[in-house]
Amino acid sequence: MSSVTAVVVGAGHSGLAMSRHLTASSVDHVVLERGEVANSWRTQRWDSLRLLTPNWMTRLPGWAYQGDDPDGYLSAPEVADLVAGYAAASAAPVHAGSTVTAVRPGGEGFEVDTDQGRWNARTVILAAGTTRGVVPAVARRLPGIVSIPALEYRNPDQLPHGGVLVVGASASGMQIADELQRSGRPVTLAVGEHVRVPRTYRGRDILWWLDALGILDERWDEVDDLVRARHLPSLQLVGASRTLDLNALQASGVRLVGRFVGVRDDLAQFSGSLANVVALADLKLGRLLDTIDDRAGGRGERPEPTLVTNATLGISLCSGEIRSVVWATGFRPDFSWVDVPVFDHRGRLLHDGGVTRWPGLYVLGLPMLRRRRSTYIDGARCDTADLALHLADALKEAS
């Protein structure tokens, strides 16, 4: 057994950002990574994906974008290279190819089992990017139809020719539906709750406005409904200078239906509330743009309301109209290897801004961890600074 003060699980941008702070505070630590640095960016992204955030917003502790395209959007391989370069420049103590199989209380704080041996640590930071798609059970029994979660989607050639049902209209579902439609496949998009925003407003990227107005800095302990804030769908954006919304998809030929509610007698069933869902999203968009206008003065040009025609409530899955389904229905972190009592009855990890109820155990990389910007790479810059201070203070008190 090897001993160290801190173990960071995961060598993605969050884990490496925390490592940078630990090094600056002279806290001896290791970063355990099941694959190679930035593993999830290499293995859990589709081929054409680009960051939703512009390059100027790709910031980590001790690092900021210095290239010649600040308003561009990095591809997944470019992000992986960035993170790998950050690890090298930081001289992060990464142990690649070391899969953590269990974290449990023991020794001086925690025992961390890996397929390469055991570590004993006073504190553990969970920064692993391991996720699994949220897919309904019915996906396993669709009649003769290829069915994959968005995490496993790579490109259109992966799917058979013919119609595709994409379930979910957040960032992933919108982008995948757009790509599949461009490939020549007829696409049906099942639309549930979503957050509509334009790519640019009044000459600025929408994320520039959210950053400048302080919206991204709203803290987890300031919001009225934290559970809801942590489960909001991702913004309907694409990593490009164009706006991708439901109107744009319909103009390209994508058919909209309501929220997927299940399968009965080989009939995929959809909610009849599509008109209400898009009206609510448009209303929230209007409030956001009003907030921007109040700060900037005047009034910008508003996007057209979302057009909704009479959407079908059911599609036969035996007619051949739908040959494949992509489930863009969300992602969930996989903490099945954490054997510490920090979970609720639904298996969700309980934490207060990244600090769990078990002393010495921290978590990073979750939506709305400490701020609204926690969802993005940029969020790790602020979140890790806060948690590193908390960790250092806790170590001092315990010594």
Layout of secondary structure:
Elements: E1 2-9, H1 13-24, E2 29-32, H2 39-43, E3 59-60, E4 63-64, H3 76-90, E5 94-95, E6 100-106, E7 109-114, E8 117-126, E9 131-133, E10 146-149, E11 164-167, H4 171-182, E12 187-190, E13 195-196, E14 200-201, E15 204-205, H5 206-212, H6 226-230, E16 235-236, H7 246-251, E17 255-257, E18 260-264, E19 267-270, H8 274-296, E20 314-316, E21 324-327, E22 331-333, E23 351-352, E24 355-356, E25 361-363, H9 377-398
Parallel strand pairs: 1-2, 1-8, 2-5, 8-25, 10-21, 11-12, 11-21, 12-17, 13-16
Antiparallel strand pairs: 3-4, 6-7, 7-8, 9-22, 14-15, 18-19, 19-20, 23-24
Shape: globular
Sheet-strand content, in percent, reads: 15-25%
- Count of separate structural domains: 2
Contiguous helical run count: 9
Low-confidence spans: pLDDT under 50, at least 5 residues? none
CATH architecture of the largest domain: 3-Layer(bba) Sandwich
The CATH topology of the largest domain is given as: FAD/NAD(P)-binding domain
Query: What's the overall average pLDDT, rounded?
Result: 95
Q: Would you identify the CATH H-level superfamily of the largest domain?
A: FAD/NAD(P)-binding domain
Helical content band? 25-40%
Radius of gyration from CA coordinates: 22 Å
Written description of the protein model:
The chain has 399 residues and is α/β, with parallel strands linked by helices. The protein folds into 2 domains: 2-130 and 334-398, FAD/NAD(P)-binding domain, CATH 3.50.50; 134-327, 3-Layer(bba) Sandwich (FAD/NAD(P)-binding domain). Helix content is 27%, strand content 23%. Strands 1, 2, 5, 6, 7, 8 and 25 form a 7-stranded mixed β-sheet that branches. Strand 11, helix 4 (171-182) and strand 12 form a beta-alpha-beta unit. The two termini are 22 Å apart.
